[in-house]
Design goal:
Elements (H helix, E strand, L loop, with lengths): L6 H12 L8 H21 L2 E5 L9 E4 L3 E8 L3 E8 L5 E5 L8 E8 L10 E8 L7 E2 L1 H12 L3 E8 L2 E9 L5 H13 L6 H4 L1 E5 L9 H16 L3 E9 L6 H21 L7 E5 L15 H7 L1 E8 L1
Parallel strand pairs: 1-10, 12-13
Antiparallel strand pairs: 2-3, 3-4, 4-5, 5-8, 6-7, 6-9, 9-10, 11-14, 12-14
Length: 319
């Protein structure tokens, strides 16, 4: 791998080796030293003062994936600190967070930069703005846009680096760097995982409500799309063992007719789930008509109030 270094990086390496003829130089060690020089030496001289750096040396740096249809993780262990994690849950947006039992950074705002390794100095340092730091086991959490930016920098072979004052001293800085070593292969696995995620997660379908138009008795496209997401999730999660389906109407009209209408709507949902392959033994379906104690809005004063009460609820039961 030594022949892949730029001429500038090789000059640094050979001048260091020539100054100490007894030094046994291995390419693996050299790349590690150069990468650490990029992240710690350059940032230390820029910021001044003492620096505590947390960074995965090339000997141990790598990325791991944890994949399922429910969630995807792309992770790097950072010695002495914890873990850097890109996390994408089904039905939710991508995020990034640092996981640590005890953060060395002060609460406040950390500078986020993207720094090149020594052998790619022509790329220069990029300022990526400031991010919030909290005193918690997840001191840094980034939204989808900033997370994708970090991924793009890692793909370029850059070193995204957080810089913040240490909690124990205003004269000492903490630098946390993400190594790009072996990122490409793990990122490809992660991308395969995200392409296979379910459209929803359990929290989004555990308690669902479908609403109905006045006198509506049959399912429409909006309702079936909602039920399809529930079916897709249940088919993938063997921990789901049951459904509770409850039908309700608004208070307009005859109570006896409302009771029957709530039954028709509840069993329309029931039958659709069965038709999609759900075991009927898993379904517990009930109906309550327009009984005031079951209304979302007990005293209906408008059409909007009645719209909220005309509903069928579906609750998933899960081990």
């Amino acid at each position: 791998m030594c022949d892949r270094l730029s001429s500038k990086a090789q000059q640094i390496l050979y001048s260091r080796r020539n100054s100490n003829p007894g030094m046994k130089t291995r390419c693996k060690f050299t790349l590690s030293w150069l990468l650490m020089l990029s992240v710690t030496g350059l940032t230390q001289s820029a910021a001044g003062g003492s620096v505590s750096s947390y960074y995965a040396d090339i000997d141990v740096a790598g990325w791991q994936t944890d994949s399922s249809v429910f969630e995807c993780r792309l992770m790097q262990q950072i010695p002495g600190l914890g873990q850097a994690v890109f996390y994408h849950q089904a039905g939710a947006a991508l995020s990034f967070y640092l996981q640590t039992p005890d953060t060395p950074m002060q609460a406040g705002r950390a500078l986020l930069t993207s720094q090149p390794p020594v052998w790619r100095q022509e790329l220069g340092v990029r300022d990526l703005g400031y991010v919030d730091v909290a005193i918690s086991k997840r001191p840094v959490t980034l939204d989808a846009q900033r997370s994708r930016l970090l991924m793009a920098e890692l793909e370029r072979g850059m070193v995204p680096t957080l810089m913040r004052r240490a909690w124990f001293s205003d004269q000492e800085s903490v630098h946390v760097g993400l190594s790009p070593v072996h990122f490409g292969g793990a990122y490809a696995e992660y991308h395969t995982c995200t392409a296979s995620l379910l459209p929803v997660n359990f929290g989004q379908v555990e308690r669902s409500t479908v609403f109905w138009q006045p006198n509506q008795r049959e399912l429409n496209d909006e309702i079936t799309a909602q039920l399809d997401d529930i079916v897709t999730y249940v088919e993938a999660d063997p921990a789901v063992y049951g459904f509770e389906i409850n039908g309700f109407t608004d208070g307009a009209g005859n109570p006896r007719e409302n009771f029957e209408l709530s039954r028709i709507r509840a069993f329309a949902v029931h039958q659709y789930l069965v038709d999609q392959g759900i075991n009927e033994d898993m379904l517990n379906t009930r109906f309550f008509g327009s009984a005031p104690q079951f209304r979302i809005v007990e005293q209906e004063r408008s059409a909007a109030d009645r719209d909220r009460n005309r509903r069928v609820t579906i609750r998933l039961l899960r081990d």
